[in-house]
Amino acid sequence: MTSRKPLIAGNWKLNNTVAESQALAGAIAAHVGDGLACDVVVGPVATSLTAVAQTLQGSAVGLSAQNTHWEDSGAFTGELSPTLLLDAGCGYCIIGHSERRQFFGETDAGVRKKVAALLVHKLVPIVCVGESLEQREAGQTLDVVLGQLEAATDGLDAVALAPLVVAYEPIWAIGTGRTAKAEDAQEVHGAIRAKLAELKGESWANSVRVLYGGSVKPANADELLAQPDIDGALVGGASLSASDFIPIIDAGARRAES
Predict the structure, then answer these.
(1) Are 17 and 235 in contact (CB under 8 A)?
(2) For residue 109, what is the domain's CATH number?
(3) Number of domains into which the chain is organized
(4) Residue 2 in domain
(5) In contact, 207 and 4? CB cutoff 8 Å
(6) Rounded to the nearest 5°, which phi and psi values hold at 209?
(7) Which domain holds residue 211?
(8) pLDDT digits (tens, 9 = 90+) for 71-122
(9) Annotated catalytic sites, by residue?
């Protein structure tokens, strides 16, 4: 039993029109109502944020952006600032996702700047960390993951970092149908929590929610969420269907009540 409230977050990536996003958000909001034992967050594309915020009004479902820039404004064509995300109705922002790192040159230093900027504006950063298949096979998983974690929190104190959420996403398991075995995922989650304690203190480390991401489905959600250091899930493909995502939400609620 943990005092950490489970969090189930859906990362919709580059999918869904405004109308499709509203329909999906509406189905999720209808299920969640004014609150469940776990927190629920959805992350639509930027063009749907404001519309989805309106759909979610009155429900307990939170809204997340998929990325941000660290400056509030300026000559940064194509970027969105924390100020604009707040204006659109966001309470969360996913940063450092492996796809951002792999395809768009996102760096550890950039992730750290984004963490700091989001915290200033009282937005919850969901910081993604994870290793590639090559790194895993070379025995470098913990070096890579804990290095990314340390870089993302460098120079920030535990008080400022209080809202932080960490998402462990092994890159080889994202969108591939392959999932880390529950005990392997727990091993990494346990190491993440130990590293957080080393960096900023045990009390803070025990309060940070660490999510698992990587082909989370209704069929494996309960097993993953039964692990002591897995506090929820960052869900990709399965979050695009209410019939898949809602059972994962329910698994999060069962985790909270166990």
Answers:
(1) no
(2) 3.20.20.70
(3) 1
(4) no
(5) yes
(6) -85, 130
(7) 7-237+252-257
(8) 999 999 999 999 999 999 999 999 999 999 999 999 999 999 999 999 999 9
(9) 97, 169
